[in-house]
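Open question from group meeting: does this chain pack into something compact, or does most of it stay loose? Before anyone orders reagents, we agreed to write out a predicted structure and look at it together. Recording both the input and the output here so the notebook holds the full record.
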Amino acid sequence: MKITNLLAFTLIVSGSLLASCGDKKSANESSILNDDKAKNNQTAPSEKFSYALGIMIGDNLSKNLGVTSKNLNVDEFCNTIAEGLASTKDKEVADASMAFKTEAQKLSTEKQQNKPLSKFSAAFSKNAGYNFASSFKTAGITADAFKTDEFKKGFLAGLGDAKPEFDMTTADQILRQEFERMKTVVSQKNAEEGKKFLEENLKKNSKLKTTASGIQYEVLKAGSGEKPKATDKVLTHYHGTHINGTVFDSSVDRGEPIEFPLNGVIKGWTEILQLMPKGSKWKVYIPSDLAYGAQGSQGGIGPNETLIFEIELLKVNGK
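Structure tokens returned:
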């Protein structure tokens, strides 16, 4: 299921960044990558990783939101990323991230339509920092791996305020290499944690039922209407969280339900909604292979993540 179209570019770390990477290597890039590989055999992010990350994000925010060093507090932004990576206050980070996305969506629309940009809110820099901290965590970046000073240098270069140490092609290649390495580690970790969570979930919740495919669900409100078929369109309200309770997307929080063809979403949704009578509200626990699998999603969902949804089926085929 494509959870939301809100600012795919602000989730640069988890997908769109890598998709933009080129295939050609510059001479400068080759020397950087080869030197790093010799020094650490790819067991840790390269020394240039944080700088390359800064360039890419600075360039993207400049182009997509009109961000400059005059309308963004660069120090607060960079320091908040580091703070967010080290923080265990997941709800605070998630709330700030959602606030950033809402404001950035407005700015992005204004930029695309060549309208004057709205004044950035006082909380924009901090909210943006927490948003990227959340995305970085999903990608597997740790607080230790993030070098704030190097990131800031790269970020200013990406905004056009400093001469870059290397070009965007080099930055692309460094990031592609590092994220691929981290993805392997994160995939295994998420798979193990998801399996353990589902096993313990069954033990502590006697109300849970399990489908043959492994989806767990609890009926929060029973409905009496028709059950949709895979070829039907459904209107739903949903609230999606990671297994640690952090919200990654919610039509409930946005105050607007979503309609979609049932055969056009993740397998877990296609399966479970066909079991739900209209008017039902269920809490559903979806194993990673029935969610986004090893690829994860640009919506802040990492590879092999087990997901939790509260789903309310409001209409079937508009009725």
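Observations to bring back to the group:
The first strand starts at residue 209 and ends at 210.
The first helix runs from residue 16 to 19.
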